[in-house]
Structure formats: C-alpha cells, structure tokens
Amino acid sequence: MRKLLIAMSMLSFVFGCDKLKKEEQTTVQLPAENLKVTKKDVPFVWEGANIYFLLTDRFNNGNPEKDINFERTDSTAVLRGFEGGDIQGITQKIEEGYFTDLGINAIWFTPIVEQIHGSTNEGTGNTYGYHGYWTKDWTAIDPNFGTKEDLKNLVKTAHSKGIRILLDVVLNHTGPVTEKDPVWPSDWVRTDPPCEFTTYENTTACTLVKNLPDILTESDEAVELPDALLAKWKGEGRLSQELDELQRFFERTGYPRAPRFYIIKWLTDYIHEFGVDGFRVDTVKHVNENAWAELRKEADYAFETWKKKHQDEVLDANGFYMVGEVYNYGISTGRMYDFGDKKVDYYDHGFKSLINFELKTDGHKNYDVIFKKYNSLLNSKLKGKSVVNYMTSHDDGSPFDKERKLPYKTANVLLLTPGASQVYYGDETARPLIIEGTEGDATLRSFMNWEDLDSIPEVQDIHRHWQKLGQFRANHPAVGAGKHKRLARKPYVFSRTYVDGDYKDKVVVGLDLPKGKKYLWVKGFFGNGTKLYDTYSETEVTVEKGQVVLDNEFNIALLEVVE
Fold first, then answer.
1. CA gap 259, 14 in Å, rounded
2. Maximum Cα–Cα distance for the chain, whole Å?
3. Which run of H or of E encompasses 136?
4. Which of 52, 117, 152, 496 could pair with 482 as two cysteines, CB 3.0-4.6 Å apart?
C-alpha cells in the first residue's frame, strides 16, 4: 500500500507540475548546487517565528523496529493507520540540517502521548490514533512515536541548532471508546450532548464529535483517578511515583483534584522534564477560558523552574509560548472570539498568539493588500500579540492550493506576510494533498514525499525557493515582526523595519519583478552609497539615485544591508 501511494503521489505531482508551468508565472531557475546557508546572530522573536508543523507519524521513520505496538494490526482505511514516523525521525532531520536549511526556528509536531490501543470505525473506515489526538494516558509517550529518552534527545538537538520545540497538547477530550479502551468515569467525562456550535455553552459543555468523551474541564469537584489508569500504572511499575508526584503538585498549588488540574499537571511535566519551549493548544474554544489561564500559569512556573535547573541550556530570555487553535478564528476578528451569545478574549487567558484561519483566503489577493492588512491589524487591534499564519494544515479541507499549482505563490504569501508562519510539512516539496481512496482529513496527511525531493527536478526547484525565503525570514525578524511599508507600486517593492531597544533590522523585498534588468526603488529607506546584498540571487549591489539595479532571471529580490 505504501509503495502504491508513493507511486500515485509522484504521478499526481508530475501532472501537477505540468499545470504549474501553465498557470503559475514564476521564474525560479535556482542554481542546482547546494544552497549556501548563512546563519546570522539575530534575536529570536515569536511574533516573527518560522514554525514547521508535521504529523509525527507521517514525517520520517527513524526506528522501523517500533512501528507496531499494542497489537495495532487491524487493516485500516487509506492513510488511517500508523505509517512509522517517529520522534527519532524528526531528530535525524534536525541533525541533517533540513530545518536549518529551510530557515525553520521552531518545530511543532502532533501529540506524542500514549494513544488508545484499539481502533474505531465511525463511518470513515477503520482508524487508529496515528494523529496523536486520541489520548489514553497523558503521562506516557506512545511507543509508536518513541520514548522519553527520544524526546529528551530531540529537544537537546533542536536547541543546539537554535530551534524551539512546541508540543501539541489536548485538554478537552480523551480518546474514543473501543473494546481495548474503556470510557473514563462519569465524574471525569461527558459522552453527550454533541456540540451544536451556536452558543458558548453548546460549544464548551458538549462532545466535539460522536464517541469522543469530553473532559469536564469546567468542574471544580475533586475526583479519584480512574481504576483503569491506576491499574495501568501499577502494571508498568510506576504507580507510587505517579501518585507521589500528584500529591506534591496539589500540595504546592492548592488546586482541587478536579479533572483539568490532573491533566494540567501531566502536560506541564513535559516542560519540567525536557524544557520544551511552548505549547500549541488544541480545541481551545471547547474549554472554559479560565482553564487556559491556569495551564499558562503552571507552564510558566515549569519553564522558569527548568531554566533555573539548566542555566547552561537556556536559549534566551523568551518566556514560555502558547499558541491556541480557536477553530475558524481570523485575524480580522481582533482579540475577541464571538460565540453568538458571548465574546471571549483568549489573548487575555494565557495565549501569546492564535492560529489565523484567514490567510488561506487572503492569499488570493494582491500582495500589498495582504501585507497592509496584516501590518495594520498587528499594530492596532493586536498590538503586543500575534497570529500564526498558514496556507495548509492537517484538518483544513480547503487549503490555499489543494492541487499544488501555486507552490511559489504559497511560499511568498506565507513567508512574507506579517505575523508568525506555519509551514505544513510538504508545503516546501509540493507534497500532494489529493490522495485517491482517502476520506476526510486523511488526504492531507500522506507520508512526507522524500522520494520526490530526491528525484524530481521541479520539486527540488520549489524546495530551494522555500529555503531562500525561509532563511531570509529567519535571519531578519523585520520580515515577520516588523512594520511594513510599500516603497514602489511597479515593480512592487516594500520595506520591513523591526526595532527592539538597541537592535534594529531593516530589509527590502521586491516581488513580481521583470526578467533581466530591473530597477528597485529604495529611496527614503536606504541612502545612496548603501551596499546591499540580494540573498536570492546572491548579488551585491549599491544604492545609486535612490534605487538598486539587478540583472537576472528571478522575479523576486530579498535585500539586506551588507555588514
């Protein structure tokens, strides 16, 4: 099946490339030699981060010996079983420099906690918890993904490359009920009613989908641990340890032993133990907002505690980062999310940033319209906060470019729009998003197309384009976190400026440039005589008469000051 899907993937891409040549007028004949990577010593700011998001099970298989656990051997629907990707596989790619070459400075991967052991069949065919969102035990890492030692190694390796790690965390539901996975006790979860999404209550006090028990996160009533969980810990020889840790947690915090506080303790343990840098929080609007402020409080405590114990491993003075998935939140909303009968400011309840569902639609607009809009909102309604932009995701069936006809435009919009960027694995290699035989989200979640990157020249060209833009973004906080200003309409030239104390970063970008000789207007931003370097064509130029002149076949220029 895997070989068949790969073959289908390659055929789909080759067909897509033919469409691309006809429909996307972009000149990107980048040199075939290895891309020169320039790593600058610049401050890291979450507001302009370049985040890579991947499905742990679908990115890279670092340990094939661990591909099957808990007798998960039933056949599944297409792309609804475990495929072998794991934590070791991510670490391998960090060590190889894959993320550094892409200009990635933070990695978010799907949850790695132990998943339900059984499978479900809810109308989409047999499915296992390969995606990580069906938790069985928050205190353990699923052996399909790896071990705690693997996670420790991943975080250390990432930090050695200046890359932050975001764990994907789930607070609002357990995994589905199966023959192998009994429902949690009724004082822990509700199994009905289903959410209707028309009011605050029928969005928070309900089950997200059928057979997905919802944690009673609004409850302050003390509950006992489930017998099944106690028996599991006992069988694994760690019952006393887990109970002792819980006792210390509740004594220190004074929280009641309500369901959400157990889970908050278990989630923040990964900060205490491994020094992860942030959380991407799932299904935010399905939990009362006070719970997120409580999670943030304990996450901050854990992060500062870890820093004190590991002072030689601290990357910088940035605090713990939390970005929330408030499904369908858009940047135009500003700070408030409207449930219809109630508005909530999640930024005021622990979140530094929210995922922005709007850019995939905005991406079809003129570049300057997009950039001006985001610059305006981030410097007014959202000043001091941020958004994480994306064009493709794991559960959005309407991505910007589902047929992968516009991989260059996708890169330009995503990586040059103000705000943080989320590169979804395979955006940079035009990984096909239409896989025959899949249902629902599975079509978005094929295995990373490494074979295409190794063998198809068109994919290699696309990949180099993403590398060029990604490195420029990573080297210049001004791109994502700075202020935008248009310098010229045609050819389109704009500037970005970022200032923080004594640090100042200034860049100029040109898009939709003509082939051959081109004149970029920089007057009023860079003075005459200023030496600039176009990182895209790797050309040094000097400002004369308020402009710079480039002569190449590229339709893009990324200009920085020569130091």
1. 50
2. 77
3. strand 135-141
4. 496
- Which residue do the tokens 């972009």 mark? 26
First to last CA, the chain: 53
| Catalytic positions, written as ranges | 282, 325
Architecture in CATH for domain 486-561: Sandwich (2.60)
Closest CA to 82 of 101, 121, 55: 55
**Tens digits of per-residue pLDDT, 217-234?**
999 999 999 999 999 999
How far is C-alpha 376 from the chain's CA centre? 24
Backbone angles phi, psi at 510, to 5 degrees: -120, 135
How distant, in Å, are the alpha carbons of 171, 208, 276, 335, 354 from that of 325? 12, 14, 19, 14, 6
What is the per-residue DSSP string for 220-231? ----PPPHHHHH
User: Given this chain, do its domains 2-223+258-477 and 486-561 carry the same CATH topology?
Assistant: no
The residues spanned by each domain of the chain are 2-223+258-477, 486-561
- The model's pLDDT over 257-289, given as tens digits with 9 standing for 90+, comes to 999 999 999 999 999 999 999 999 999 999 999
Pairing of strands 343-345, 556-561: unpaired
Topology of domain 2-223+258-477, CATH: TIM Barrel (3.20.20)
